[in-house]
Write a structure and sequence with these properties.
With 188 residues, this protein is α+β, with helices and mostly antiparallel strands. The protein has helices spanning 2-12, 23-29, 47-52, 57-62, and strands at 33-37, 40-45, 69-75, 80-83, 87-90, 103-108, 113-116, 123-133, 138-144, 147-153, 165-170, 176-179.
Length: 188
């Protein structure tokens, strides 16, 4: 149905407004998205722009399936991100946003989280909660010191039962920082 609507829209060459709560529908049909929260516009932009550069925590959590990982915490004086019940990892590329002692929310898409060898710099120690097998990929749902984190994993051959310890690497170039107070995106 989505492809038929998209085809009809292009053939007619008219502007149309399509209202939906289905984010997949919105992402596939829209040339421009308007994301609203309780009647207030949170962000306007092309689907890829909204997905890759969410203007707020609400947009980051709403757009994407699975949703963006959102870890609440703060940066310490050494520039490490401290989250959950004391989880701590190094972040290389957020120099202009790190404000030690201020509560923030660090966001990262599940496809930018990968399994890594223990001891790898910048990894988060986690415990597998459960795994969703999707065929070509799978989603690893894990607990990292009280923070929920999901990773898209292409290795579907390794058995990973609940309780399996693992280390997850977050791609520095894919991190987003949001204010813990108002949810707005923080930039350099």
């Amino acid at each position: 149905m989505r492809s038929e609507i998209r085809k009809l829209h292009r053939e007619l060459g008219v502007t149309s407004v399509f209202v939906t709560h289905d984010q997949t529908e919105a992402m596939t049909l829209a040339d421009k998205l308007i994301i609203m929260n309780a009647g207030i516009v949170e962000q306007i932009g092309a689907p890829t722009e909204v997905y890759n550069h969410p203007a707020s925590r609400f947009v980051a959590d709403f757009i994407g399936s699975p949703a963006m990982n959102l870890l609440e915490g703060e940066f310490d004086a050494a520039g490490h991100f401290v989250h959950g019940t004391g989880g701590r990892f190094a972040v290389e590329k957020l120099n202009g946003i790190r404000a030690p002692g201020h509560k923030v929310v660090l966001g990262i898409r599940p496809e930018a989280v990968a399994r890594a060898a223990p001891g790898t710099v910048g990894t988060i120690a986690a415990i597998v909660d459960y795994v969703e097998e999707l065929g070509a990929t799978r989603l690893i749902h894990a607990d990292a010191n009280g923070s929920r984190i999901v990773a898209v994993d292409a290795d579907t051959t390794t058995h990973m039962p609940s309780g399996t310890p693992l280390h997850l690497k977050l791609r520095d170039d894919a991190l987003h920082v949001f204010s813990a107070e108002d949810g707005k995106r923080l930039t350099h």
